[in-house]
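Sequence in, structure out. Go.
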Amino acid sequence: MTNLNTKLIDREMLLELYPALASKGKNKYYRLQWLTRSRQIPVIKIGRRLYYDPEDIQVWIKGKKIPVGVIK
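Output:
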């Protein structure tokens, strides 16, 4: 799925693009850290640093959508 011209982004840029992934309170990165550690969100690890592919995040978000009338 990943295009070779895709620019990887860090957590600060990810939260700028998708503020719903940020936690409220003192540590705005808590929710994103939890999603990353529990391997629920796609992440790319290069050395010790974590990066996110915006295209992978878009696909992940689309996969989380609930169709109309299916909420339980």
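Check: The two ends are 31 Å apart (CA to CA). The chain has a mean pLDDT of 88.
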